[in-house]
Amino acid sequence: MVKNLIPSIFLKDEKAVAGFKDTRIIDDDPVSYAKKMNRLGGDMLLIFDLSASDKEHEKNLDIIREISRSTDIPLIGAGNIKRSEDVKKLKYAGCSHVALNLLKQSNVELMGEVSKRFSKDCIFVCADVDAQILDNVDSIREYCSGVIYLGNELEGEYKGLNIYCLLDSFDQREPVKTLKKLLLNPSVAGVCGEIINSNLNEIQKYKVELKEMGIDTNIFKAKYCFSDFKKGADGLVPVVVCDHLTDQVLMVAYMNEEAYDMTIKSSIMTYYSRSRQKLWIKGEESGHYQYLKEMYGDCDMDTILVKVKQVGAACHTGSYSCFFNEVLKKDYDSQNPMKVFEDVFDIIKDRRENPKEGSYTNYLFEKGMDKILKKVGEEATEIVIAAKNPDKEEVKYEMADFLYHMMVLMAECNLEWSDITTELKNR
């Protein structure tokens, strides 16, 4: 089992605070704090919503949603869960896992319902004493995939359970020794809490040390060293950067050996600036980080291709890709379904920003949300009616109509295709 080191964020009054009862502000900007935790090597991110009102709770959900969009790290959402709909809201905000507090008897009863609705794989529970686990161990095994353990001493093993220990009390002189003791327990899948938060800059170092002790941790290991690549006269290798979902070329940059090694170690794209003659982490100033997904050398090993998750825009102009100056274009039939969706959606968004006289799309935007929703409902009904007939051409036509109106609704709601595909992937 790969063992995880997991930073935690406690959200209170739209700030990151120190803990459940310690409301000292750690960071005024929880999103930037989360980016830092991701950048420094956190394997997952545990987020506790400590809101005291529905209004604050909604604001915290917005923060979690922005963290999900700005990082490349699985999120575990916890706090303020009273019913199935609360789990849905955290899932919609981008949490891959949601943790129910076993202190609430209602959550013990809720386990089965949300497991069946959202899948066992995404449901965790929180427990602060061994008795809570023991009293519910059969239900936890049946309905949950992990346990956030809030106590400082875990007694024994729990076969069939993945325990994540939230550790606040530890020997600050020897944190690795404490981590080793916990992670050697076969039931412990990871460690979170103050032992991680107070040592964020050491996460990668701890992973290496634990690996050397025989504990499997999440560390990238490249099949090729930088010396295996053919360099230019300046000692650099060009890097072509693509979107990992669409394969769209985003930019071209350069690496030296230090940039190459830092990228592999951190999973954050790092380059060498020829103009400034120094290393630069993409997104360090703008927040538009690139999270490494795949890396390839070409046939001559003189060029690197990387596929990344791009946060925000890749280009300094604000364009998603640096390649937008059209030199020439020949009409052709694009067979890439995602490209078709993107092209049509781009036109719809352009109509919204730059109205065109006589445009049906502009007519919908002018009439507003009620009209758009009415059309979406009508087109959905048309699909149902068409599907009752044997002619698949009619179904195809009605589905295309529905997708178009759905994209108008997406634009009106400020959603992107990536939001939809990410949600589908998380299902």
Give a summary of the structure in a few sentences.
With 427 residues, this protein is α/β, with parallel strands linked by helices.
Tags for this entry?
single chain, about 425 residues, alpha/beta, TIM Barrel, Ubiquitin-like (UB roll), Helix Hairpins, 3 domains, eleven-stranded mixed sheet, four-stranded mixed sheet, 17 strands, globular
Mind explaining what this structure looks like?
With 427 residues, the chain is an alpha/beta fold. The protein has 3 domains: 4-212, TIM Barrel (Alpha-Beta Barrel); 226-310, Ubiquitin-like (UB roll) (Roll); 337-426, Helix Hairpins (Orthogonal Bundle). It has helices at 30-39, 54-70, 84-92, 105-118, 130-135, 137-143, 175-183, 194-197, 203-212, 257-266, 337-353, 360-367, 369-387, 392-412, 417-426, and strands at 4-6, 8-12, 15-17, 25-27, 45-49, 75-78, 97-101, 123-127, 146-149, 163-166, 188-192, 237-243, 249-255, 270-273, 278-281, 290-297, 304-310. Helix 4 (105-118) links the parallel strand 7 (97-101) and strand 8 (123-127). Helix 11 (337-353) packs across helix 14.
CATH topology of the largest domain: TIM Barrel
Which CATH class of the largest domain applies here?
Alpha Beta
Question: What is the number of helices?
Answer: 15
Q: How far apart are the termini?
A: 23 Å
Q: Give the second-level CATH assignment, the architecture of the largest domain.
A: Alpha-Beta Barrel
Q: How many distinct domains?
A: 3
Q: Portion of residues in helices?
A: 40-55%
Average pLDDT taken over every residue: 92
CATH superfamily of the largest domain: Aldolase class I
- Give the class from helix and strand content and strand pairing: alpha/beta
Largest sheet features: 11 strands, mixed
Strand content: 15-25%
Number of strands: 17
